[in-house]
Specification:
CATH architecture of the largest domain: 3-Layer(bba) Sandwich
CATH topology of the largest domain: FAD/NAD(P)-binding domain
Order of helices and strands: EEHEHEEHEEEEEEEHEHEEEEEEEEEEHH
Radius of gyration: 23 Å
Number of helices: 7
Distance between the termini: 30 Å
CATH superfamily of the largest domain: FAD/NAD(P)-binding domain
Strand content: 25-35%
Number of strands: 23
Low-confidence stretches: 336-340
Mean pLDDT: 90
Number of domains: 2
Largest sheet: 5 strands, parallel
Helix content: 10-25%
Shape: elongated
Structural class: alpha/beta
């Protein structure tokens, strides 16, 4: 059994920064995330995408931001349970919750901070007959390790940032990359669109617009994908991997059954400290909702900062909290002054 002060559900940027703010108050944190790596969507879906609204960074790659957050929280030695979904929560004593994951990991803490972004994500799958038979056998809905596709013949479908970014990234790794999209225009960043167009001109990427995959076939593993186009009609293409990148569908998952006040798949909170209707449980970042809510990373950072101040008072109601600026004390300078 794992015991900690604050159990953070969600290891995205908001959850990670909350570790830093909690660490300044000498509160231990343990993070649980269904994804196999820390960083949430930034690390899993678009690590190469630039972010422009992080204070102090005119532009920072999503993956780089995650790396910086991990470096920032390293002095506080947080625990991680990754690749496991938070499944069940129950009270096991006064001011003590117990969480059990879908793989049986048990964690206890007096405070739970739900920083699960938009909840659990499931890939949006194209309506292709028999597609599920080739999942993990040539059909992939995410790119977790680019090396898996080295020297392979790839067919990527989609018109958003993920499809564009991975087309660019895999063009130098795969034997062949074909990108198909139902329309002639793309939804992704203009810079990414320009790069894909340039790769297509140089014959490093096969770009087919006004096209969609309609069928898959193979003997145990994927061998061919049927493509229907406006200009060429329908034809079969031999591929090693088919990667439909149509985004993810957010769902609250088990969180919806925890007795929290929910409004349109988001958790209602008190903006004084982002507490929920259940004492000791908070919700920060994109998972929560309130009047004037903005789903921005920097807003989540603010919410996490106020939340840990409230969490400290909840855990130690009789202790005096002496707040100081990190510019005065530094991170290490906080170690001896938390409890007065």
């Amino acid at each position: 059994m794992i015991q900690t002060d604050i159990l953070i559900i969600g290891a995205g940027p908001v959850g990670l920064f909350t570790v830093f703010e909690a660490g300044l108050l000498k509160l231990r944190c343990h993070l649980v995330d269904a994804l196999p790596i820390a960083g949430g969507q930034l690390a899993e879906i678009y690590p190469k995408k630039p972010i422009y609204d992080i204070p102090g960074y005119p532009s920072v790659l999503a993956g780089e931001l995650v790396d910086n957050l991990m470096e920032q929280i390293a002095p506080f030695n947080p625990g991680f349970t990754l690749g496991e979904r938070a499944e069940e929560i129950k009270e096991v004593g006064e001011k003590m919750y117990q969480l059990t994951t879908n793989r049986g990991t048990v964690i206890q803490a007096p405070v739970i901070a739900i920083a699960a972004g938009l909840g659990c994500f499931e890939p949006r799958k194209p309506p292709i007959p028999g597609l599920d038979k080739f999942e993990d056998k040539g059909v992939d809905y995410m790119v977790k390790d680019p090396e898996k596709f080295r020297d392979k013949r790839l067919l990527i479908a989609g018109g958003g940032d993920s499809a564009l970014d991975w087309t660019i990234e895999l063009a130098d790794i795969a034997q062949e990359v074909t990108l198909i999209h139902r329309r002639t225009s793309f939804r992704g960043a203009l810079d990414s669109v320009d790069k894909v167009m340039e790769l297509a001109k140089k014959n490093k990427v096969n770009l087919i617009t006004e096209a969609q995959a309609t069928g898959v076939s193979g003997n145990g593993v994927l061998k061919e994908v049927t493509i229907k186009t406006k200009s060429q009609g329908e034809f079969n293409k031999e591929v090693d991997n088919f990667i439909p990148l149509f985004g993810l569908t957010p769902k609250l998952g088990p969180i919806a059954n925890w007795g929290l006040n929910i409004d349109k798949n988001a958790i209602l909170v008190d903006t004084r400290d982002y507490s929920t209707n259940v004492p000791g449980i908070y919700a920060i970042g994109d998972i929560n909702t309130y009047d004037g809510k903005l789903k921005l990373i920097l807003c989540g950072f603010h919410e996490g900062t106020l939340m840990v101040q409230s969490a400290f008072k909840y855990i130690y109601p009789d202790a005096k909290l002496s707040f100081k600026y990190t510019t005065v004390a530094g991170v290490n300078g906080f170690e001896d002054q938390k409890l007065a």
